Amino acid sequence: MSIWQDSNKVGFCSTIHDGTEWIVRKRKKPKSSSTLATITKQPFATFNLSSQCKESYEHTRLLPIPSMTDDYNHYMGGVDIADQLRAGFSTQQRGLKPWRALFYWLLDTSTINAFRMFEHQRKARLGLKKDKARSMHRAFCESLVIGLLLEPPKPGGPTAYITQNTLLPRIRLTRPIEIHQFRQASTRTLCYFCRWSRHSKIKSGITTKVITKSRNPYKTKIVCSHCSVALCNKCFYPFHYYKD
Ligand SMILES: [Zn+2]
Ligand SMILES: [Zn+2]
After folding, report:
1. Ligand 2: centre distance to CA 170 (Å)
2. Which long-range contacts (CB under 8 A, 24 or more apart) does 210-213 make?
3. What is the phi/psi pair of residue 89, to 5°?
4. How far is the CA of 163 from the centre of ligand 2 (A)?
5. Total domain count for the chain?
6. I need a labelling partner for 65 at 20 to 30 A (CA). Which of 108, 141, 205, 217 fits?
């Protein structure tokens, strides 16, 4: 983070600059009518001893500026797109704690960056086809909110995706074992451990031998109260004692 005195103070926050890189650029002297002219015209002063009576300034001068500022000037295309997008759907809330404003600013920035990348990919997929979408920014923000409000999928829920590399949830090893109680679910779902052992049979022959002779996972109404994982009668204890 850094603050740069341009014609006004400008705050920067960057993840790709370390604040020590400078670049020399031709700069214009700010107008004498500008608010902070007394400060900002100083770098343009000429050092001419003969003209002691009158201050004189150069119109332009080569000056070092932080590359953060330079990159901003070059890649924002004159209009700050991020500020424009931020104005549309800002999360800023009125409050007294100063760090909160920074938090909301960072939240907005991450959202906008994600949106820009999403748009980049979406437009690349469109190719030469006409873009019919309207107000993609609103649609993106809305689906983000809905996505965040959804309950996260439980580790061992019926829809939990299992592959050969899926590890059993560590929560199952919480002791004492009495914490793990049979709970009745309202619907019947496939046993998580049956499904897991079917996929991981390459890893160990033990699981398939111990757990189920049949290759088909059992449907069960039992859920472990602690792990929130659907387990059939046969798998309930092997699941909690299995060491992978
Ligand atoms: Zn099972
Ligand atoms: Zn459990």
Report:
1. 10
2. 210/238, 211/235, 211/238
3. -135, 60
4. 21
5. 3
6. 108
Pair (183, 227) in one structural domain:
yes
- What separation in Å is there between the alpha carbon of 84 and the centre of ligand 2? 50
157 lies in some domain? no
Chunked mean pLDDT (size 10), the chain, 244 residues: 81 83 87 78 76 74 88 73 80 84 88 90 86 85 88 60 83 90 90 84 51 66 91 92 85
**Closest ligand (CA of 212):** 1
Q: How far is the CA of 152 from the centre of ligand 2 (A)?
A: 19
- Please tell me whether the peptide bond between 98 and the residue prior to it is cis, using omega within 30 degrees of 0: no
Threshold 0.85, pTM exceeds:
no
Q: Does the residue 103 lie in any domain?
A: yes
Residue 88 CA to ligand 2 centre (angstroms): 46
Provide the residue range defining the domain that includes 71: 2-75
* Structural tokens at position 49: 């001893």
Does 66 share its domain with 12?
Answer: yes
